[in-house]
Design brief:
Elements: E1 2-5, H1 15-26, E2 34-38, H2 53-67, E3 72-75, H3 85-91, E4 93-96, E5 100-104, E6 107-111, H4 122-131, H5 134-141, H6 145-165, H7 168-171, H8 177-185, E7 189-192, E8 199-205, E9 208-214, E10 222-228, E11 231-237
Helix pairs in contact: 2-3
């Protein structure tokens, strides 16, 4: 069994998502053939040298799973594209390029975060090319931590504002881009996240039937794609409520 997830947007302010992810690591992912995380794993990442205690705890949890024998593969998203080699080494995971072709059940499958498929959002695509430029990344990684924190907050705020103002079809994938890139890489299955619109879409590539699987974001519930001999199963699950601690006998709640 292979598991794929994306768009957890992990942050300290969402302990419910963190608990669900840690439960996945100690449950379904333990003993899995591999775990793939296709971007936006963290809500923000300003550099491997700026890991918070919270982010370090996630790194350690990944390392524990990796050491247990489950390979972990991580892809950049638009929120955490500055994750680097130091984090991956500490977490025991392999950084995948976007896009990457892997083999599931003997067939080639294209993995992407998904933001590069939204070509109608021209302003975002320009910003993406600028931020992913190696020179830009070098400069960003060498800025003072305070400056990086301010820049990350500014970019997140602008992204939320612009997304609310844009039409739904602008921030979704461009329909023509999907068959184009699948044909370019010679695959009949594409798996990506980013759009927060989980679904399995059937399409035609010439005379062949193909599929685009969109992973769900972790917000009101979690989403996992399982790949096994039976095929692809995309499913959601509810977050387990935080345990309520029992009060000592004779005490009263205030």
């Amino acid at each position: 069994m292979i598991l794929l997830i994306s768009d957890l947007h992990l942050e300290e302010g969402r302990p419910d998502i963190t608990r669900a992810f840690l439960d996945l690591l100690t449950g379904r992912a333990r003993g899995a053939e591999s775990l793939y995380i296709l971007g936006d794993f963290f809500e923000a990442w300003i550099g491997d040298d700026a890991m918070s205690p919270f982010q370090r705890s996630i790194c350690e949890a990944l390392r524990t799973l990796s050491d247990s024998g489950t390979p972990i593969f991580l892809m950049h998203g638009n929120r955490d594209f500055m994750i680097g080699k130091a984090f991956c080494k500490a977490a025991g995971c392999t950084l995948l390029s976007d896009p990457s072709v892997v083999r599931f059940n003997g067939q080639p499958v294209l993995l992407m975060h998904g933001d590069s498929l939204c070509t109608r959002d021209e302003a975002y695509m320009r910003m993406r090319r600028y931020l992913r430029n190696p020179l830009t990344l070098w400069v960003l990684r060498h800025l003072p931590l305070g400056t990086r924190h301010k820049l990350a907050r500014k970019l997140r705020s602008e992204s939320r504002t612009q997304t609310r103002m844009k039409a739904n079809d602008i921030v979704d994938v461009t329909p023509e881009e999907v068959p184009r890139i699948m044909s370019e890489y010679g695959v009949k299955t594409l798996i990506h996240g980013h759009t927060h619109r989980p679904a399995i879409h059937k399409l035609k590539l010439g005379e062949d039937t193909a599929q685009r699987i969109v992973l769900g974001d972790w917000d009101r519930q979690g989403w996992v794609l399982q790949v096994d001999e039976q095929g692809f199963e995309l499913s959601a699950f509810d977050f387990v409520p935080e345990p309520v601690l029992a009060l000592p006998q004779g005490s009263q709640a205030t």
